[in-house]
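Re: beginner question about structure tokens

> Can someone show what the tokenized structure looks like for a real chain? I only ever see the sequence side.

Sure, here's an example I had lying around. Input first:
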Amino acid sequence: MESYRERFDKWLSRLDDGDALKDELLRAQGDDRLVEDMFYKELEFGTAGLRGVIGAGTNRMNALVVRRATLGLADYILSIDGAKERGVVIAYDSRRFSDAFARICAETLSGRGIRAYLFESLRAVPQLSFSLRRLNCIAGIMITASHNPANYNGYKVYWEDGGQLAPKQADEVLARINEHDYFEGCAAPDEGLITIVGGELDEAYYAATKTLCLNAELVKKKGGELKIVYTPLHGAGAKPVEAILRSIGITSLSVVEEQRCPDGSFPTVRVPNPEDRDAFRLAFKLAEKNGADVILATDPDSDRLGVAAKNNAGEFVLFTGNQIGCILLNYILSCKKANGTLKNNSLAAKSIVSTRLADAICARYGVKMVNVPTGFRFISEVIDRCEKTHENEFLFGFEESYGFLAGSFSRDKDAICAAMLTAEACVYYRQQGKTLYDVLNDIFEEYGYYAETVKSYTCAGKEGMEHIASVMRLLRQAPPASIGGKRVTMMEDFKARTAKNFETGATGETELEPMDMVRLTLEDGAAVCVRPSGTEPKLKLYIGTRGSSKENASEGAEETIAFFDDMMKR
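And the corresponding structure tokens:
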């Protein structure tokens, strides 16, 4: 196996003079620590595709990495009868080099005889997923790093059902990627196999999205009374979100102009993440100026939605992903129950690290809740099963990380549709004299106060990844007896699929597919899930509690965080 220095020397010798990648290597050659980070490993390809810092090296996102990944995908497609004629649809967001990487994908595929449908300009993740199924393609590629910082980009692969690759498929594609050299020659592109797409697919997606409105006539009549501020955070959401909201009747819509135009440097935010309050800074100013009722924000590829609404003191409160998911779930189920369209076989889905409040809401309406591993592709699998077996009707799915999906025509997180449903819910509850903040409190009053806290530890570089692995290993080999003075009563290791009750000594198996996560349950019923991020160099904690009041529900989270703060220092 080549060392990182050997890989560096190879790239330096093979790249042409004047190539921006070679220039970057020349600047880095005296910094051994940087060289190691560039080349100590290859970007990992999995169900979420590739994601990494833009730049030269095997551990970076660049044209050579994108072309090699596409050659591997092409090999996999060519191994399937009739697949190459169905083709691959390719979309990209506003990040640096996204359009160039998308063009490389199209040219590489066409050079292998595979038809490629390339969007004329940037599009959102849900539009890619929808278009894949609409065009009956075998696969799709989305060039994006979602909500990561500006120096990142990524490469996500979707399969014919509209969801991201399954683990076994990702492994097969990876095996074929590994058969290719970064510098091997490629066949000339066949321009006759590259079709530029856009407008017609947009209109079809908009039409399908609007079929999910639950109170369309009400919004047409009263939507103009609701004042919304929206920011696309320099991403792909501006056109589709504005188009959808205005077409359903939201006419008092103000867009943050400084963040309206696509810009991969994301100059007005620290990170283009609707989970981050700082990303709302300009939206808050505009909302105060315009007297807005609610603020919506989407990330660069418009698969995540952030929401802020006024509390009783007139101050804007930023909702968590769990809270948005429960508000939308409750709105959908209550409206369907009221108008008689809630079926006995209705089903919702969420990631296992998301709030248990959603389970309680579903139980109230007699709707089945399915918990799945983290990663929205597992929700897409639930949708696919519903479609094939007809045993259940899928209504809604979400993840705590601000990803929501209603309906089944798209198979990934859809912030455009979620923005539409949130606006519609605002209009609906406004007629009852309520804000979204009031609605959330009503839900807590009915089901109990649930509190969730997410804490991330960033551990960059080779040493950071090794530290994350060591922490996970320690949790498995020597789980803590207590956290914050409260006994740990159960540990579930979802990688080994084992569960042990420390109170009774009983052991069992976890039901979900294997994933790198440990869940610790405490004596008061609180739980903490610990897992490495699949897309960033982070270790993530998901802490969930329930109490008789907001204050009571939040107790214990700080002690849990303090415990892991100390553990991460070891």
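Each token stands for a local structural state, so reading them left to right follows the chain. The first strand starts at residue 50 and ends at 53.
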